[in-house]
Amino acid sequence: MSKIIRTVLGDIDPNEVGVILPHEHLIAFPPVRVRPDLDYRLPSVENAIKEVSDYHDAGGSMICEMATHGYGRDVSALQEISRATGVHILSTTGFVFESIYPNLAFNATEEELVELFVRDITQGMDGSDVKAGWVKCGSSYEKVTGTEKKVIRAAAKAALRTGVSITTHTSKGSMVFAQVELLTAEGLSPSRINIGHLDRYTLQPGYLFKLARTGVYFAFDNVGKLKYAPDSLRIEMLKMLIAEGFGKQILLSTDSGRQSYFKSYGGWPGFAYVLNTFIPMMQAAGISEEDIHALTVTNPRNFIAFEPI
After folding, report:
1. CATH fold label, 5-304
2. Mind listing the pLDDT tens digit for each residue in 190-207?
């Protein structure tokens, strides 16, 4: 069977997809008990359509939407946004990290979680026939709790049963090697793992090189968030990683999970930032068109595409 990418409007040929943002948020209703800051609420389909349309006009082709069960995932809204904009959208199963878990993550057994994730991927999510395209899991700051280990193991088992990849949340870039160890211990190939948020507090060559040598993908998915690091530093690290032969393992995104990151809500930098601002910065810094194409098209496409089992 050929590889496919599973979107909210159905399975597609990976070759249909161009530039991909592999870690974004479009619609979210996180419970106030876990996200008291209402900036995390993304209720407007109209605003999401405006934002995604700007991205499409800049040359964007696909977005991976990261809201999971318990975080306000709305797959019918994602279908509406995709149809209105012409941008492919992948939706996500799994859970993020303990402090924002829904009760189900604590109460279910590991095997029950595996069955939930597999069902989301193969049958549909939230009572619909809209299928998830991958699994998400994560860990807390400087620790992996017992419940997080259960979710991570379940995510790995579900990925192995279905063929999809796993993308992770790291809290401030911590516990990345623990995540890799837990996932690969279940038999998952490093090439099916993407470690998230590596450009927040961990833009250090030794740390990044050590992770790259494990063979996993890893994401600079806070592009444009200057409160964590200047984009010039992100580009400096990208150049070093590419020079060391790790350019085919890196993904780029903005993780726009707040209203204040959406231009359509009056924020900044917006979804078109990678295409309109960051790519020109990479070009000016001497990163080749071939490497830029890998970072924005080939790498995420290769990581997301899978052969259904």
Report:
1. TIM Barrel (3.20.20)
2. 999 999 999 988 899 999
